[in-house]
Sequence to fold (1020 residues):
Amino acid sequence: MTVRVHFSSDLRRLTGGLTEVEVADPGATVKALVANLDGRFPGLGERLSAGTAVMLDGEVIAHPDYEPVADGSEVYFIHQPSGG
Amino acid sequence: MSRVHVTCTVNGDETEFLCDGGQTLLNALRDELGLTGAKEGCGTGDCGSCSVIIDGRLTCSCLVLAPEAQGAAVLTVEGLASGDDLHPLQQSFLEGAALQCGVCTPGILMAAAALLDRNPDPTETEVRYGLAGNLCRCTGYDKIVRSVLAAADSQRTTSQRTNTEETA
Amino acid sequence: MTVTESRPESSSEPPAARPRYRFVGTRPVRHDGLDKVTGRARFAADCDLPGQLAGCVVRSPHAHARIISIDTGEAEAMPGVKAVISGGDFPAVAPGDPNYDMGVNLMARDRVLYEGHAVAAVAALTTDQARAAAAAVRVEYEPLPPVLTIDAALDPAVGAIHAHMFTSGADPAPTEPSNVSQLTNFARGDTEAGFAAADVVIEREFTTQPVHQGYIEPHAVTADASQDGKATVWCSSQGHFNVRAQTAAMLGWETARIKVVPAEIGGGFGGKTTIYLEPLAVLLSAKAGRPVKMVMTRSEVFRATGPAPGSKFRVKLGARSDGTLTAGKAQMAYSSGVFPSYAAFLGAWTVFESYDIADFEVEARNVVLNTPRSAAYRAPSAPMSALATETVVDELAQALGIDPIEMRLRNAVSEGAINTLGAPFPRVGFTECLEAIRDHPHYGAPLGPNQGRGVAAGHWFNIGESSSATVNLNEDGTATVVTGSPDIGGSRASMALMAAEELGIDVYDITPVVGDTESVGFTDITEGSRATFATGMAVVEACRRVVADLRGRAAKMMGVDVSEVDWADGSAVHAGGEHDPLPLAAITAEAKKTGGPITVTGSLDAKGVGPSFAVHLCDVEVDPETGVVQVVRYTAAQDAGTAIHPSYVEGQIQGGAAQGIGWALNEEYIYDGDGVMENPGFLDYRVPVASDLPMIDAVIVEVPNPNHPYGVRGVGETSIIPPLAAVANAVAAATGRRIRDLPMSPVRVLDAIVNSGSDSTDSSSSNG
Fold:
């Protein structure tokens, strides 16, 4: 199973400049995917766990830890906006 | 400190209350008489949410001392409807969605009522200047102004009908 | 009393393709309306308890000072005084604690950090006694130099307000503390190449001052702490579960010890998403053993509660001669008052978000000052960033001889465009809003002398978050819908409309209420334009499960399998037609025999939020003698997704526009050299009044959000984003002068007219 992961550009310094990676064995959920990414980019996991939302296959999910990822999923790590 | 005894008419009822000499009419209405329709938005006469009508005159009740109400006729938002019949302004505000949070609404209704009392057929500009002492932060005034104009219309229609019936 | 449904002429008829709804999209009189026109509605300050005391806060006269000592002895001995508290009465907070900022903001500890900062509080029998006692609390200060401007905060030579604050997001991590709390960088492509490919490049500087949300109801609370260690709090807020959580955290209490009862809220606009008085009132009540009521004065509201940040930007955009934007560069600073915030981050995210720009660089700094801690204000940070971008886009259009709407249409983001964060946009209605304004009669209408027309756009994300709704069917077939979302602009009516649509009963047979923290499931703050979207989803979910339950009950009553029972127009209908339809009331009447009460709670963390766009069109008339700017005509188009109650969607659009006009023309915090606010009242802090404004024509655009059962996007915030630039562009059109420092007060406008304006100081270049 492979998913494509996109990072917002302010995360570049944690990803060695990459804004997009393919993850071959992402695990079943976003949480597992984050753990996987943290192994590859140390420190990224902590950053992604703190208030980061994802856009998963076109839908913004504010608290995505247990959201399932599927083969071919497009995962965008974005930010959770606040509001007034 | 001795309290001041005040006798006045509030919303048509003979009313007595005790207040401190330095107490505002707004506080007396709210704290002594339980009429919390008038609000304190600023306490300095700038926002109009405490507006009441005293002897026919639109007044910021936060700028009037309670003892000054001695002998006066005070009308608050609680007295605007006649029994179960809403004042045309109240009805038009509901129908025209002229309120959002509603905290300025009592004051604006009193200001609008005072305006229509002296000018039953105001222009949009006259309504805007008539309400210029009342702040609303939610609506942008659009629906308020429209609702006041609508109420003026319906009031005129009603009074014309009454006049016609009387002459007939 | 008569409450009639009215359907005034709608400014936008729904497109024909939209599903036909019986209730959604109609304009019933709101359920809470009658109480609000008769004075019966109870706002925060209208709550009184027997035996209550009056509380009063002692506030700092200094913008920055060390507290040498606080002597409460004299105050405690004064007549009527029942309790005095100060920072030492609250749990200690250390720098780095998640609650540090809020804890210190609530009550100063070793230093006061802005004028108006709370240092102590008093409860006494009467307000006069409490005020007298507050004045008798002796605080000895050692004044410290205040940091009052963005420039000062950015100056490394100026000492850091917080010794523990190191710029987050900076690479490498700084070794010295500073007044820059956070740095955000977004970038895409090759900006230099992008500017090189442009035919025109324009770079401009902008400043805005802090402005207040200006809700008419001052903060107020009544707290009753009982001997069993619990407390009930009556207050108005945008989220009473949040008030409970924050109050508990500030006191070090378990959540269950606090019950928060929501009063009607007299405006919030983001400013009532946090707390100021509640823990003080609870602590005073616990200490005095009696209920305590605290009400802020307007001056306290200005000096101690949430202004929106001030800002200082430099924004550069390049475009080809056909209008295509090629590159953007933004250097931004937001001042969030004395504590860090996400203001700069949100500004960085929003500044180029509306346009498809291949190459950009954004750098945004959040700075702290010795001014009140900023709070959210309707689409936080976006009005300022839009002022910059929408002004420069306007100038580019002018330089290229392209119609300003056409210029925006050529660059507007649409579904699939990659946003600032690198993610694709879902279906959005920006193009539709631009077209709605272009096609509006206002756009081509003639202008009079000294008049000018400006257009500007705005975008907001909107948010989801957690909501709960309980639907209780009553014995007679009416229903109660309880949600946890404070109603700040008519959301109860929207909840009732969606419930009516789902259940098929009349909207007035539904009573929508806002439950207290012990009467309904957890619900996040009413913010981010989320109530009708997310809480609406919870209502719909609960109603759909109610309908499933009703179908089962009806099947039992009919003696058929549930699969044979449908729900239509408020009745259970047998698919085979052998049984008469059973109206909802017939089923609730038999509830005891078919399984008991019918009640369902829907709870969710809403996904699939739909971003919103708006385009505003503004005509101004500028008096060349006085510099006074009068807005003479205003039209605002906004994509609501679906308007559940069009009147209140229009109301949100109109209200946001008016606030933005005030921000553009008059509103600002003014400080003296010592950091003392000089205009803490509505006389000198001038919000728009009725005579300042024209009618605001609200055009509802409906591009449904595919992720909401009724297509809702949320409408509360986007409307405040475009006005700053729309007014500025109109003033520029009327006067030929660009004013890029807000507010555009008469003095500033006159100066721009009389002198040459600021154009010459900025760089504008043509390539090739």
Notes: The CA atoms of residues 70 and 120 of chain B lie 30 Å apart.
